[in-house]
Amino acid sequence: MKFHYKFSNLLGSVYKKGNVFFSPDGNCIFSPVGNRITVFDLKNNKSWTLPVESRFNFTAIDLSPNGSALIAVNEAGTASVVSMVSKQTVNKFEFKRPVCCIKFSPDGKLFAVCKENNVFIYKAPGNFTGDYNPMEMVRVFHGCFDETTCVDWTSDSRVIAVGSKDTSTKLYPLEKYTNFREHTLSALSDCVVAVFFEKDSLDVTTIGRNGQLCIWECSLSLSDLEPFDAATAAPNKKKMKKEGDGEEEEDDLNLLTGELRQQIMEELNEKKNEEQKESEDTDSKKRLMKLLAKHYLCDQFGFDKPKLTSAAYHKQTHILVTGFSNGAFLIHELPDVNLIHSMSISEQAITTVSLNGSGEWLALGCGGSSHGQLLVWEWQSETYVMKQQSHAAGMACLAYSIDGQYIATGGEDGKVKLWNTRSGFCFVTFSEHTSSVSAVRFANSRKFLVSASLDGTVRAFDMTRYRNFRTFTSPRPVQFVSLALDASGEFVAAGGQDVFEIYLWSMKVGRLLEVLTGHEGPVVGLAFSPVLSSTALASVSWDKTLRLWNAIESGAQSETIVLSSDGVSVAYKPDGKEVIVATLNGHLTSFEVESASQCSCIEGRNDLSSGRLEADLITAKKSLAGKSFNTVCYSADGEYVIAGGQSKHVCIYYVKEGLLTKKFEITQNRSLDAVDDFINRRKMTEFGNMALVEEREFHDKTEKTAVKLPGVRKGDMAARSSKPEIRVFQVQFSPTGQSWAAVTTEGLLIYSLDAEYMFDPYQLEMNITPQTVKQTLLKKEYSEAIMMALRLNMPNVTLEVFESIPSASIELCVSSLPQQYAQKSLDFIATVMENSRHIEYFMIWLESLLLKCDTPPLRTLLTVQRSVTRKYHDIAKICDYNKYTIKFLNRLGGLRNTKKMEDDEESMDMDREDDDNYSLAMEVAS
């Protein structure tokens, strides 16, 4: 088995911080999740994570108007330019300072960046002419006295509006105009949260953090802007000369007398009056912006007024959406500011708001230090388009379903969530537990799942009706930290943390059958034998023992194996003949179940390569001595094990030889602790590490600071005062062997086989090439072509060979295949059938190959089951959708046939009448 796993998706976390936005077509929404970006396809009900990873968490992202380029800026000010065509990073640029906001111009040629008290205008990627560095700066504006917070463009991309913490809004033209220059709007009393231009206008709406909304009207339109030309600067001198000529004319008038002098004086007075009127008109034009109205949005909440945290405006429909710190949002219609809708969705602050292109859907993101929530709301029908929420605390455990379609996760918030691995969405949440969930298990029948919690209960949940139908408890309160479910789904076992006993229940009866005693420490690992006819149970504890039980037959009798250190985790081999134990000294030791003899021992502590904490006062070697694996799992074929623990690395070992096959680095996020291998010594002082010193921000006297004094328990207790440490809490292989998942500090990471770029030949010879395979296929030597394609092992060539064989020749072709090639053909078809349109064709292949193979592996059968089940669900949805349409068409066709028959009868009657009239006329004529 070759491992070519590649990062596939990030589940469990939907949003953390930054801004979310819709794609230009309005069907997808982009959400920053830590140092990655997740795309939610609302039309096809799918989600995927871009294969782009930053060194720090993303804080500001934006997509070009044509949807071809995405720019994402992280906490350190590093911008990544991502091509949405290849889904790869094409360029990186260092802003060297945190960026608050980034926004593309409507024409897509420029984008603005708010950094500190400046606004930088750059040329957009894709509009450069072959230069090495596409991030070419065009303009810089330095007018703000405090940090800039928001920016917006006019419809023609010629003027920008910039909001700042100094309560003012600046209007900057990108070019010089004779009748428009830099302008300042200052009517707010708090920092500016959002600023918006009206469509095809210079009218501006500014919104402050205290809920103040100001509507400004501009005396100019976009078409009135007159570009400045250097050649027109000369008339100023000519005007001065004309003024001098006028003085000379006045001196000459003194020499004149009579009516001529009076006539000339009247003409001069009329000229002065006209010039005075023109000057008054120009003064009125200089006052470009006029404050039309000021509104207070927070008055909707009464006395307890929250802070306005985010806003979005749809220029075509004049819909304004504002989010507040208490989790509520308001929808108003401008310019009259009429309240359309108000709703509270969370107890956390709404940190980002976005509207799609049509203005029908609005996306709301609630970020926090512990969890995130993202929902899409259709405000006209008041329905949810999407509603996803992470665990309120960190995830602790996971379990794959038997066919690999679903993943169950348990969190420290006491919730159990079910995730669809194909769509990436959470479709049900169980919240019956009152404390942290420590373990979850799926039944092999996929009819229910079981979870254990520190609240002293083990609960079973129905997968059909999504309800808690069984609750198992112990005679005395116990904190359960381990859980096991046998292969038949009849028995459930759970181990305690404070009471060192194992409790065994019957799933059908719901009663306690046995209490297994003997351990002298917390029972942290339990596993039933995967063999259907066996009820063997393995348990490990901190008392340095591994115990093998058969509680159903022999009661509390067990065979004890002494370990070299405290046991942490245990797993059974898929054939049930071996168990592997992870111990506190970093070893992975396997034992035979029947003879209780040791098979192999893997020293994996050095493979962890643990990073350095910023508060570490010891060396890296001493720090590594305290690390170990805390989770272990066998692969689907039983030849490999995957292990993870107190490190950013996940290791895959070949058990028979004890060799490290692959080591995965699950994250490069420096926003987490223990990721760096070295500590920056420049920040080390005699008082400690200066990187641990927090920067406080004092906005006003009523603002609560994030830093809490010792002993003070008021304020936001969820706000972290230190960076979380990167850890792997649990890893597990998919039963199909196509993927594996890991519960980490970042979330639920899924790695899948990357078959697209994989070249892994099998018994390849010199004469086997893609050309020779196609030549053999043209000769209609189908069996030989299949064997050559499988030996070449190029997925595109193999798929072409299988799809070129006529359906009538499939049975004969399979009968002539050797057993090993029939097995490989079954593996290949089970994998490609999931994404193929030729359902009936591949079902014929599956039927013939399953009859040909004597004993196909369980992982292959599970892959076949998953593919067939997904196709069944897809077709069922289409049939349910089209069922009523077909009935309508049949009914309509019947009505048309009836009408046609009636029309035919009428036409026949008319023909008969015509014939009768003709015959009568002939008789009269005769």
Attribute tags:
alpha+beta, 926 residues
> What separation lies between the terminal Cα atoms?
102 Å
Task: Trace the largest sheet across and list its strands.
Answer: 1-58-57-56
Please tell me the overall pLDDT: 83
Q: What structural class do you assign from the helix and strand content?
A: alpha+beta
Low-confidence stretches: 234-253, 697-706, 711-720
Q: How many helical elements?
A: 12
Shape designation: globular
* Range of helix content: 10-25%
Our estimate of the beta-strand percent is 35-45%
Q: Give Rg in angstroms.
A: 37 Å
**Most strands sheet:** 4 strands, antiparallel
Provide a quick synopsis of the model:
The protein is of the alpha+beta class. The chain is built from 12 helices and 58 strands.
What's the helix and strand layout?
Blueprint: E1 5-11, E2 21-22, E3 28-33, E4 36-41, E5 46-49, E6 58-63, E7 69-74, E8 78-83, E9 88-94, E10 99-104, E11 110-115, E12 118-123, E13 137-141, E14 148-153, E15 159-164, E16 169-173, E17 183-185, E18 192-197, E19 204-208, E20 212-218, H1 235-253, H2 259-286, E21 289-296, E22 308-314, E23 319-324, E24 328-333, E25 338-344, E26 352-355, E27 361-366, E28 373-378, E29 383-389, E30 395-400, E31 406-411, E32 416-420, E33 426-430, E34 437-442, E35 448-453, E36 457-462, E37 468-473, E38 480-485, E39 491-496, E40 502-506, E41 512-516, E42 523-528, E43 537-541, E44 545-549, H3 551-554, E45 558-562, E46 567-572, E47 578-583, E48 587-592, E49 598-603, H4 605-608, H5 620-625, E50 629-634, E51 640-645, E52 649-654, E53 659-665, E54 684-685, E55 688-689, E56 728-733, E57 739-744, E58 748-753, H6 770-778, H7 782-792, H8 795-804, H9 810-815, H10 819-832, H11 839-852, H12 858-925
Antiparallel strand pairs: 1-58, 2-3, 3-4, 4-5, 6-7, 7-8, 8-9, 10-11, 11-12, 12-13, 14-15, 15-16, 16-17, 18-19, 19-20, 20-21, 22-23, 23-24, 24-25, 26-27, 27-28, 28-29, 30-31, 31-32, 32-33, 34-35, 35-36, 36-37, 38-39, 39-40, 40-41, 42-43, 43-44, 44-45, 46-47, 47-48, 48-49, 50-51, 51-52, 52-53, ...
Helix pairs in contact: 6-7, 7-8, 10-11, 10-12
